[in-house]
Amino acid sequence: MRTADKWTDYRIIDTSDGEKLEKWGDISLVRPDPQIIWKTDKTSNLWNTADGHYYRSASGGGKWNFRKKVPEVWNINYGNLTFNIKPTGFKHTGLFPEQAVNWDFMADKIRNAGREISVLNLFAYTGGATLACAEAGASVCHVDASKGMVQWARENATVSELSDKPIRWIVDDCEKFIAREIRRGRRYDAVVMDPPSYGRGPSGEIWKLENSIYDLVTLCSGVLTDNPLFFLINSYTTGLSPSVMGYILGTVLTKKFGGSVSFDEIGLPVQSTGMTLPCGSTAIWQK
Predict the structure, then answer these.
(1) What percent of the chain is helix, strand and coil (3-state, nearest 5)?
(2) Which of 193, 203, 205, 249 is most buried per CB count within 10 Å?
(3) By the 8 A CB rule, do 25 and 9 touch?
(4) CA 285 to the chain's CA centroid
(5) What's the pLDDT band for 271 if we cut at 50, 70, 90?
C-alpha cells in the first residue's frame, strides 16, 4: 500500500465502528467510513468532544452536528499547497488527503521530465492534482461537470498563490470534452482521472465505472502526445480492484507507448494504531 504520510495539517487520530476521528488543522471531525468494519476500543477523548460529527440518516444522506461554531471555511496546507476546507451536506470536506501520495508522484515526474509538460485532469473535483501539477511547472486543463467544484478549485488556486499559472478551468462532461479535444487535435503529455463510481450519461443513462472504465481509458489514449509521461487513474469503487485498473492501462497504453504499469491501494496512517487505513486504489502507467 502507498501511504500519504507527509501531512502536518491533517491526521487520522483513530478509527472504529464505521467512523474515523480526524484533525483538519485545529478542527476535529468524526465522519463515517464504510471500510471501517472493526469495532476497536475508542481510546481518545476527542471521540466525545470533536468539533463536528456527521451522522448518517437511515433514509439516506445525513447531517452535521457541531459542538461549537466552526469557521464556514478554513485552510490546511500540504507543502506549498493550500486548500479551503468546507464541511458539506454529503459528509465530505472538499479534499481527499490520501491523494497527496499521488500529488507527490506527479510533481516529481513533472519536475524531472526535462521538458514542458501539459496535464489533463478529468473529474478534477476541487483541484488537488491540478494544483500539484501546476506548482511543479506543468500547464493543466482542469475539467469537471460541476460548476461549484470548479469554482472551489479556483479558490484553492488563489489561496495557494497559483492563480497566475497556466490552468484552463473547464465546466463540461468529461467524455464529451475529450472527444472534442481529439477532434481539435489538442494533445496532452499526461492524464489524471478520478471518475465517479456511478453517474448518468448525457441522455440520462446510468453510468457505472466498472462497465465504462475500459472505454474511457481507450478514449483518453487518443488525447495523449506521441511521448506521454504518465496516465493515472484513481478509484473508490470497491468492486474495481487496483490490478484490474492496472491491467486495463497495460492493455491500452503499454502496447501503444511502451512504459510500465503499477497499481496499489492508497491509504492514510492512523495515529492510535500505527496502521494504515485503506482509502481507495490507484493505477499508474508511466514512461
Answers:
(1) 30, 35, 40
(2) 249
(3) yes
(4) 17
(5) very high
